[in-house]
Amino acid sequence: MGIIVTKDTRVIVQGMTGRAGTFYTDQAMRYAPSYVGGVRPGRGGTKHLGLPVFHSVAEAREATGADASFVTVPAPNAADAMIEAIEAGIETIVCVTERVPQHDMARVKRALAGRDTVLIGPNSQGILTPEQCKIGVMPTVDARPGGIGIASRSASLTSEILANCSAANLGQSTTVGVGGDTIHGIGFVDCLTRFRDDPDTEAVILIGEIGGREEEKAADYLSGLDYGKPVIGLVAGRHAPAGRRMGHAGTLSVFGLETAEQKQSRLRAAGVLIARDAADVVRTALKALQ
Predict the structure, then answer these.
(1) DSSP class of residue 209?
(2) Domain check: are 115 and 185 in the same one?
(3) Cys staple from 149: which of 57, 144, 184, 204, with CB 3.0 to 4.6 Å?
(4) Which of 177, 111, 185, 168 is nearest to 149 (CA)?
(5) What's the structural domain count of the chain?
(6) What is the per-residue pLDDT across 96-142, written as a single tens digit (0 to 9) for each?
(7) Which domain of life does the protein's organism represent (predicted)?
(8) Does pTM surpass 0.90?
(9) Active site residue 239
(10) Are residues 170 and 285 in contact, defined by beta-carbon separation less than 8 angstroms?
(11) Which residues contact 160 (CB under 8 A, 6 or more apart)?
């Protein structure tokens, strides 16, 4: 079954007529027939990629029954796009846009307060339930349906580990890119909770990084909890120099934040099986499932 998105998810794309929106919508539509329309103010009543285009999210939702939105809007307007989708009652929002200003994301977090909307991102590769639904930019060539749930902060490591899993006949229930920015939507704890409740997920892989608090929150959640399924963890950045920004805002390691080794130690103490490196993740998962 997987989590958050299924074969019944109906997706609209905010910014579909732009260059990035066109490219990634076309890829996603080729993978699964989940897409029902796009949103571009001033372009309502037209068609793009064979789908109807609407002036607003509310109009698109009413006409198509969409319950998910794929936000490809550039950074200066991405927060407004997310807030529009939240206010229109969209259940799942995936924002792949990078470099959304943090003060804009603070507005988005306030808009989410008290609502049931799930936000994935920004700066996320998206979400994929194999052979059912893809929202985002992650490659699908190696994805296979199965029992491994993946929650990740790193797009490149996700692709590598997913491919390794499939090569070892470990298919995936759902893969979630939680996003690399400091202020973001869904995190490891929410993913762990959903994977725990999903009967099709047999084990969970957490792909972490230096910077941020996702790994610490996951360790606190798992501590003293009978999770009932193996959790395999990898924290990238063991050799990163302290105090430097590494790649994006979420991996800023500064005074007061834990190192990769410290994060791994906390996760291990909470019962997570720690992999030495990306190649060791699948070996660890196979041993745990045996």
Answers:
(1) E
(2) no
(3) 204
(4) 177
(5) 2
(6) 999 999 999 999 999 999 999 999 999 999 999 999 999 999 999 99
(7) Bacteria
(8) yes
(9) no
(10) yes
(11) 278
